[in-house]
Amino acid sequence: LNAKSARATARVFCIANQKGGVGKTTTAVNLAAGLASHGQRVLLIDLDPQGNATMGSGIDKRQLAATLYQVLIGEATIATAAVPSEAGGYDVLPSNRELAGAEIDLVDLDDREQQLKHAIATVADRYDFVLIDCPPTLSLLTLNGLTAAHGVIIPMQCEYFALEGLSDLVNTIKRVHANLNPDLRVIGLLRVMFDPRITLQQQVSAQLESHFGDKVFEAVIPRNVRLAEAPSYGMPGVVFDPNSKGAQAYLAFGAEMIERVKTL
Ligand code: ADP
Ligand code: MG
Question: What is the CATH number of the domain that holds 56?
Fold first, then answer.
């Protein structure tokens, strides 16, 4: 066995938070591009019918031959539905609003929470990382993501009550761990849209560190307009402006994840 084949199975991570607008998709897209630029083979799965991770990777969600939806209902494989993000340097299993219908199609299946896990298994030897950009709901789609994953990355803003807002997600993770996926764990909390000039954010950040220790990633993602502008150019911020503070922070986060998976 050479080194590559000894660790040929992808590590699968959900980027999840039940709130919308907290930086899940920005984290998914930029972590994917950051890992790719560090030489990792990455598949980004867009589990949100909004298709923002698809568009943010430079793939037009209105012109897709096949999507995650067809994969979940057994009409396509990941190998045929995934498309390369030329901007990002990784593959994307794309989605659009059609994915919302999967909830209804899956509900009568016995192993309805396992469909994504089974699909990922067929391509696990092709990637080092599979990242799943979750929707802001604790739906059957999100359950499919959590059932398929080794761990969860939780992006959060350092706001008052930020932690209380996480209790539903943490309870869902516990339930999935107990019933569907004993491998599942929280990998870490990622501080995003951070503004060090705001005292409250510094205080919440310090509280997170003292409460959760090394479950808080060292990398901190600043609020940075270049990260917000990049999707309209169909590019991850890491590629759009690699020298910006936001891009540098996501590149550092990628390096931290590569180290972190060695300890899992
Ligand atoms: P979610 O996927 O959780 O709904 P998004 O990643 O789409 O959240 O982010 C919500 C909005 O905030 C988007 O307009 C995005 O461009 C912006 N945004 C995310 N992270 C940052 C950041 N670090 N700095 C500035 N804007 C950001
Ligand atoms: Mg999103």
Answer: 3.40.50.300
**Is ipTM over 0.85?**
yes
pLDDT in tens, 200-251: 999 999 999 999 999 999 999 999 999 999 999 999 999 999 999 999 999 9
The alpha carbon of residue 152 and the mean position of all alpha carbons in its chain are separated, in whole angstroms, by 8
The dihedral sign for the CA sequence 168, 68, 85, 256: positive
Determine the pLDDT at residue 161: 78
Distance 23 CA to ligand 1 centre (A): 4
Q: Whose CA is nearest to atom 27 of ligand 1?
A: 228
Closest atom of ligand 1 to CA, residue 155: 3
Alpha-helical regions (H) of 180-244: 199-212, 225-229, 237-240
Name the closest ligand to CA 95.
2
Q: Which residues pair with 131 in a beta bridge?
A: 13, 44
Determine the structural domain holding residue 62 and report its residue range.
3-262
**Ligand with an atom nearest the CA of residue 155:** 1
Contact residues of ligand 1, CB 6 A cut-off: 20-26, 52, 136, 192-193, 221, 223-224, 227-228, 246
Query: For the chain, what is the domain count?
Result: 1
* CA 73–ligand 1 middle distance (angstroms): 30
The whole-number average pLDDT for the span 102-117 is 94
Q: What is the pLDDT of residue 1?
A: 47
Residue with tokens 């409250």: 200
